[in-house]
Amino acid sequence: RRIPPVYVPQLMMEILCVGDSIDLDDNKQKSSEPICKSAVMVRQTATKGAILLRLNRDEEWITEMQYFLGRFKKEYVDTGIIPEDNFFWESGGERYHKFLERTKELSESVEFVAFIDHQKIQRVVFENGVKGEIPLFLDDVSMEEES
Question: What are phi and psi of 108, to 5 degrees?
Answer without folding.
Answer: -95, -5
